[in-house]
Each structure stands twice: as structure tokens, then as C-alpha cells.
């Protein structure tokens, strides 16, 4: 199979990810932070190491303010529901995933929050001035995706962060698409909360993700439960990361995530970015020679986190993806990608989009085979 | 290391757990329920298989009403916060883990719920009549642990379930301790909601767990986000299990959990129970010959899910555990085990307890070595 669905989850993972997970489970996987025996300490140390690794990766000063979650969705829910009160105003964008839109729409409906969705250009790119102009007295939070999971468009997160800081508004970035291929610096970008997945660009396993919360941001707890700390306290302890990490952590998953990030560090984030861009450029070049293709992604590396979103005229996106899968063994994702607003922006709510999302293990040969398949399909349509 | 901390997390796992996780990650781990390509379908099918396997394991009629969570704590939070409204009365017991107590105390403090904590006997065993007598007009929910994570005492869950059903009160069981060693039948036991971990008695990996919700129980959503279903809907879809499963699932973890349950099924739940009881009986017998030991667990299989909770007179439990770990390489868990109420009940809030929790891979030799170590320790005290 030619796997071009890395925006859903990256595959394959670096060998070290498989190996480290396996070794963790076989050799030392006790419950981290519970009990003081050698194996529990080894598990705890492994978790701390990855916490520190990720903190360095995102330039987070205090690793204890990075908590592990099961996925980005959990991180976003913790962040939004932990800070928002009835009457608050939230600004978000037209390219958000349902992991942002559904919590916000639910809060709008049941908890009396006010919501502004800033529109973008034809690619969904928002103008920071429009964000600025949407700020009101009761604006509490701006939520913005790092890049779109539909067409890869990179949002002006740095500029929006500056505006948020200037206006005393909190800034939450959904880095589900882009963490691991776009450099993220929470300090430089004025990010107060960063939600990210482990299993996409960071090359870790599914079941991992995280949330960074700046030192001066006070959330309500989202889940209460055992933390292995302050056990005598029948209320949630307020120290981080325990405050947001109730119940047993996914130790082998976190270890695997650490191996993924180590791979990125050893290869170099920028080199991975350049490699993926080379793959994607070749794909875009090849598409130029194929008839009836509509492209919804920008082609430059500065504007695209690594996705080619296309359609064949008005053909349903599922039809193309099905043929790619069943005849050519090529994995893509059609439909709406859990992002109806983005498709509304791109005008593809009905047709969907065929999304090609190569990863750092895809080869030039695979790109050429995919282009060949698309050429054949275009002739038959 | 002699690992006697299976109540925290089971270790080792059956070989098939390691192998299936590894094969899943290497061979077919795409995003289940997202996209229709061969690998995504293979992942989705693997998840469904485990859902059905677990449903059969707990006698859940509709597998779609079993949703996967990252741990038991998440499952309990989803259940309690999804059903409780201000003014509701909740009954729970004196042996609950902080995963139950902390959400309840938080709701009591901030959301105006009323809480009754039913006391038990010297082992923490509650009398179902006391539960019955605590029911009031506004009682919405009874929450009870299947067995205590501190001393293994098994609660009369079946009888409490009958009482709950007779009074039209919902019944949530926390099966963190006991699932995989005590037979659980949600129909027979009148369980409306069952929260369970994947990484303890079910022998799966950390990062897994689940919540069963009976067909006629309507929860509020806990997290909203992408579900891969009804993507055009900017609100959470109401179909189960999607309603409670936002964001990418932990596919390899769930596959590993399936392998754990298959191991239990092939070995036989009752055989595992008998084997663990044999191990534990030998341990209790040996303890009788050791001076100054106080035992807080019942010894019979009908009353104990598999824990020996002990102390040496008034010696701090951490001191004993530390010696066991550092001198003898024996892993136990001292302290409060995230269950302050249970320790209050047992009178060990200050001293803690040294918890021995053997698993189905512990051997008679390991028990004897542990007893030998305890004999030496008792002499030196």
C-alpha cells in the first residue's frame, strides 16, 4: 500500500518507536508515579524524559506545565472548558477541525458563550487584522489551528499570538496538523495553550497527545481522579501536571512518542520539512499535466504544512479515493475530514476533497506511481 | 524483580499482547473510522472486534454501547458528569478510589450535589441494607467499586444493583480492581454503567479502558470533537459509541487489550482466579508464621479480588516497601494507594499499607522468596 494519509495518522513510524514501546512494555512498564519500587521509578523517569523532550521541542520553559492527554481532542476540551465562563466571547477561524468547533458550538448552545468565526481567503487563510477587529471587551480566548487538516494552509499564528497578547486575550493553538513539520515556539508565538497529537507529525503512537498551559493560566480541572500525589486529599491537587493528568498514563505510548520526537530531532525538523516539501512539489508538478484537476492547497512550503487537496472536476471525492484504494492500493482520505467549516470555505461541502498527505517515509517512486494512477483515472472520467 | 504490584498495573503481559501491538503498529495502524482505504478499514475492524469481545466478556448486549477511554478515571468522569444535575443525591462507599471520590467531592463543592458515603465493616465491606436506607427521593446514582484497590475486599455489587434497580436509581460500577478476576455480568448485576481499565486485570496495555452505558441511559457528552462520523454536523453526533469517543482512538492499545482478554478467555477467567487465589493463600499461610504482621484483607476468594494488605505493627508502610524493593528486588506499593477513605476505614491513614498484589504470572517460588524476605525484615524490626 502507498500510504498517503499521514494527516490522519502517520505511518509507518520510525523503527525506534516500535522498539522502544516493545522494550518499555516488556522490561519496565509499571505504573509511573505510583509506588516507589524500581520499575515504577523507571516508568516515571521515562515519562519525565519525554515531558522534558517535548518541552524543549516547543520551547516550553517549564516541562511540568506540559500534560499528557490521549489525543488532541482531549487537550482542546481541557483547555476550552477549563477557562471559559458564561458570557465570554471566543474568536476562532473558518478552518477549524470539529475538535475545536464542536466544543465551541456546544458551549455556545448550552453555556451562553459568544462565538465569532473569522473568515479567510479562498484557501482559508485568515487575515490577522480580521482577528484583531473581532476582539471585544468580553473576548477571553482566541483558538486557531496551526494549519488546516483539509488543505494544509498554514495560519499566521505568530501574528495572531502577538495580537492576542497585546489585547490581554488568551491564545490556544490546535497543532494537530503541523506539530512535527512546522516549528512551534510557544514563547515567540505568544501561545498560552498548545494542544498537539502524538500520532501525527511527531511520529508517536495513537493514544498520545498533550496540552501545554502557560504558568499564569489557571484552568478548572477537567477530570478528577487518582494522581499518585497528595493521595490524602479528596480534591484534585493543584500542582501541575497532576492537576490535568488523572488516572494511569499511557506509559508505553509516551515512550513511543519520545522516540518519534528523537527521530525528528536527529533528522532535523527542517530537513523533514524540506523532504516533505520536495515530495509534495513533485506531486504538484505532476498534477499540472493531468486534466480536470482542481487544487485547493497552496504549493509553497511557507503556506502548506504538507497536504495536497484536490478534486477531479465535480466527481465525488469518495469515488476517486475508492478507486485509488481498490485498484491502485493508494491510501488517501476523501470527504469532509471532520472539518465542515473548512469545506464550506473551500466550497467543497458537498463534493468533499481527495486529500493526499505524504509523510517523511514516502518516496519519489510512490509519488510517481500515484501520479500515474491519477493520470489513468483522469482519462477514464 | 519480583513484581507484586499488579493492582497498579499488571506486568508482564501475555506475549500475544506485545506481539499484537507490534504487528498492528507495523502492518495496518491507520486511523480507524477515518477514510475508507484498506488500512483504515483494517484498523476499524480491529477496534470493532475488541469492542465485541469485551461486550461478550461483560455480557453487554449492544457492543456499540461500550466506548473506549484512556483509563478508568476518564470513564468514571464521563459517567458521573454526564448524568448528574445540581440537586441530585449520590450514594457511594467508604472504599472508593480517588477516581470516584474526587469527581464527587468536586461536584459537591461546585455543582450543588448531595453526597452520602456509606460506611462498611472493619474490612470496608458495605451492607446493602445501608445503601438501601440511604436512598432518598432525589437519589440519582449509586457508585460502587467492584473491589477495593487497597485490601481487595469484594463489594456486594449484585445486591446493590438489585436495590438500585428496584428504586429506579442508576448504578455505576468502578471495576478498576477486579475486572479480569471477578466475573462481571452487567445484566445479572443490574449495572447501568461500568467503568473498567484495560491495563490491570484485563492484561492489556496502559492507555486503555472503557465505559459501558446501558441503552436507556442518556448522558451529556463529555468531550466533543471529530468522530469520523456525521462530519458535516458541527455538534457532537448522538450515535454511540461515537458520542463518547471523540478524537483518534488508541488503536494499538485497543488491539493489545483484545489480546489480553483473549488470553483470559483461553485460560479461563475462573482458572486465573483459582490460580491467583492459590498464590495468595500460600502467601497468607506463610504470613501466619511471621511475627508482628497485621493483615487488612480477607483471605477467602469470595471476599478478595487478589490483594494482601499488611503492615508490621506500627512501622511506616513506605519503610517496608523500600526495603523490599532495594534489598530484595520485590515490588509492592505502600502508602495510601489514591484511596484515603479506604485507609480511613481501615485505620491506616497515617501508616499506609504495604500492598502485595500478585498477578497470574507470579510463581510459587516468588511467593516463597517474598515470605522469606518478610521473615528477615520482621526479625530486624
Automatic annotation (TrEMBL), chains A, B:
List, in alphabetical order, the Gene Ontology terms for molecular function in this entry.
Answer: cysteine desulfurase activity; pyridoxal phosphate binding
The stretch of residues making up the signal peptide is none
Reactions the enzyme catalyzes: (sulfur carrier)-H + L-cysteine = (sulfur carrier)-SH + L-alanine
EC number per UniProt: 2.8.1.7
Q: Which SUPFAM superfamilies match?
A: PLP-dependent transferases (SSF53383)
Q: Name one GO biological process term.
A: cysteine metabolic process
Domain (Aminotransferase class V) ranges: 2-368
* UniProt cross-references to InterPro entries, sorted A to Z: Aminotrans_V_dom (IPR000192), Cys_dSase-rel_unknwn_funct (IPR010969), Cys_dSase_SufS (IPR010970), Cysteine_dSase (IPR016454), PyrdxlP-dep_Trfase (IPR015424), PyrdxlP-dep_Trfase_major (IPR015421), PyrdxlP-dep_Trfase_small (IPR015422)
Q: Which Gene3D superfamilies match?
A: Aspartate Aminotransferase, domain 1, Type I PLP-dependent aspartate aminotransferase-like (Major domain)
Q: Which family does it belong to?
A: Belongs to the class-V pyridoxal-phosphate-dependent aminotransferase family. Csd subfamily.
Specify the protein name: cysteine desulfurase
Q: Which organism is it from?
A: Clostridium thermosuccinogenes
